[in-house]
Design brief:
Blueprint lengths: L9 H16 L15 H6 L12 E13 L3 E7 L4 E7 H4 L1 H7 L7 E10 L5 E12 L15 H6 L1 H7 L1 H22 L4 E2 L5 E2 L11 E4 L4 E5 L4 H9 L4 E9 L11 E10 L3 H19 L5 E2 L5 E2 L6 E4 H9 L9 H10 L10 H13 L7 E4 L11 E2 L2 E5 L1 E6 L2 E8 L4 H12 L8 H7 L6 E7 H8 L17
Parallel strand pairs: 3-5, 6-10, 14-15
Antiparallel strand pairs: 1-2, 1-4, 2-3, 4-5, 7-9, 8-9, 10-11, 11-20, 12-13, 15-18, 16-17, 18-19, 19-20
Helix pairs in contact: 7-9, 10-12, 11-12, 13-14
Length: 488
């Protein structure tokens, strides 16, 4: 049953509202200001003493939402759910008293109640609360969806996440896992002397990446600001300021498309480590992801939605970008071809390229459409074209590439990293090429900061949403964001 207003009968709503009115008429507060549980549901279950007599079992108080009611004349079995899980309670007329039991029988699925009583186990071995008293905590005026039929519409689960979390155990567990992943990232980095910082969301220049920004207006200053598209440039200012290891977990905003892998508002981890480089970042991200899987999520492996198992504890492949391109095109001389020749080959391979594309963009179409989606096992793709990132160091042995990697797992980019460019003159030149003569798009304040001297450093970014997709075996970014952007 859907919970849309149009799908709920007026009778259902009227019956619940009448029960609400009856409670108030009897002096019962249907929306209490407090109830003090002694345990979460799972803690209460764990508190049961299997080797003790019935009279020695602990008394517990739990509170949660009624999900199951089984009526048996003068007794009922009910199950309530809180943040931790579900616990059963046995409610009898002789324990509550006739008047209280009569009111208990009027409860509806979805009501939030508190129950107190001594623990025991049923004949089937289920730990249960023998209710000695109960309290109405919050009356539900709308019925919950039916357990197996109520939220089949995936769009509805995103728009009414509160119902998704009540009904779908898998969804609840996924968001618990996301929380543990973020906590695990912090713990891992802090143990390695990284300092967590916060940098501005409103910025004068949308820098640190190539993306269309959102624009907002500050009334008091009477000026426009960009909502940040990247955390990078402010974090690197902190390297200049003497913070050698910094990280931030924060929101970025990109005014671009929505897809299974993209949401306009997303969460990123970015970190910078002085006196390291992109090789050091390889070791760090490999150890971090293995830590998240084994120590945080207590897993041994991850299975893709299609069934392929990802091996995180074997050797992670390293492959140069140019080698992958030459292998895919079956042409070892690919990078010596003219742009026209490359465009013709790309079209033969079934890809579309827009007129006027730069040479590197034609090649990158092959990588992004035909190579990256097929890299399922952990792969460091290294030494990408310099045009793709103006903030990285040029490769000494090949100045058409940069000292960078993109970590690809499960067919999607999980974490790019590189050796940071710290030469202010080279950095200005790269910015100017990227800006195409548009001086207002160059962050001169950042360039001036670099002139005070920035230590060599490795920098890395990891999408929190994407690593959660991967490690929780989700299929869509909307499954790991509590409230994703949706079309109206």
């Amino acid at each position: 049953m859907s919970t849309n207003l149009s799908d709920i009968s007026h009778d259902q709503l009227a019956v619940r509202r009448q029960k609400l009115a009856d409670m108030r008429e009897k002096g019962v507060d249907p929306y209490r200001s407090e109830f003090k549980p002694s345990h979460f549901a799972t803690e209460a279950v764990a508190a049961y003493l299997p080797d003790s007599e019935v009279e020695d079992q602990p008394t517990v108080a739990v509170a949660g939402r009624l999900l199951v009611i089984r009526k048996m004349g003068k007794a009922q079995f009910v199950k309530i759910q809180d943040q931790s899980g579900i616990i059963q309670s046995y409610v009898r007329i002789d324990a509550l008293g006739g008047e209280a039991y009569a009111e208990f029988k009027k409860l509806d699925l979805g009501d939030i109640i508190g129950i107190e009583g001594q623990l025991f186990t049923t004949k089937t071995g289920e730990v249960t609360i023998r209710a000695a008293r109960y309290e109405m905590v919050s009356k539900a005026l709308r019925p919950l969806p039916e357990k197996f039929h109520g939220l089949n519409d995936q769009e509805q689960t995103y728009r009414q996440r509160h119902l998704d979390l009540i009904i779908n155990k898998e969804s609840r567990e996924r968001f618990f896992a996301r929380s543990r992943i973020i906590s695990g990232v912090r713990r891992f980095l802090e143990e390695r002397s990284f300092l967590e910082v916060e940098t501005p969301i409103f910025q004068n220049i949308a820098g640190g990446a190539v993306a269309r920004p959102f624009v907002t207006h500050h009334n008091s200053l009477d000026r426009d600001f960009f909502m940040r598209i990247s955390l990078e440039l402010y974090l690197k200012r902190l390297l200049v300021g003497g913070f050698d290891r910094v990280f931030e977990i924060g929101r970025n905003f990109r005014n671009e498309g929505i897809s299974r892998r993209h949401n306009p508002e997303f969460t990123m981890l970015e970190l910078y480590q002085a006196y390291s480089d992109f090789e050091g970042m390889m070791e760090l991200i490999q150890n971090l992801i293995r830590y998240l899987i084994k120590d945080v999520l207590k897993k041994e492996e991850v299975t893709m939605p299609g069934g392929e198992v990802i091996d995180f504890f074997g050797e992670w492949r390293r492959a140069k970008y140019k080698d992958l391109i030459c292998e895919k095109t079956e042409n070892p001389s690919w990078f010596e071809l003219s742009t026209d020749e490359k465009e013709a080959k790309v079209k033969e391979m079934g890809l579309e390229v827009e007129a006027g594309c730069e040479d590197y963009e034609v090649t990158h179409e092959i990588y992004s459409k035909l190579i990256e989606p097929n890299l399922i096992q952990p792969t460091f793709v290294t030494h990408l074209p310099k045009e793709l990132c103006p903030l990285a160091k040029l490769t000494k042995s090949d100045e058409s590439t940069i000292d960078v990697f993109e970590l690809v797992i499960g067919g999607m980019e999980i974490a790019p990293a590189y050796s940071e460019q710290n030469d202010p003159n080279v950095q200005r030149e790269m910015f100017e090429k990227q800006a195409g003569g548009e001086a207002q798009n160059i962050d001169n304040d950042f360039l001036e900061t670099l002139e005070f001297g920035m230590p060599p450093a490795g920098g890395l970014g990891m999408g929190i949403d994407r690593i959660t997709i991967l490690l929780t075996e989700a299929e869509n970014i909307r499954d790991v964001i509590l409230y994703p952007q949706l079309r109206s």
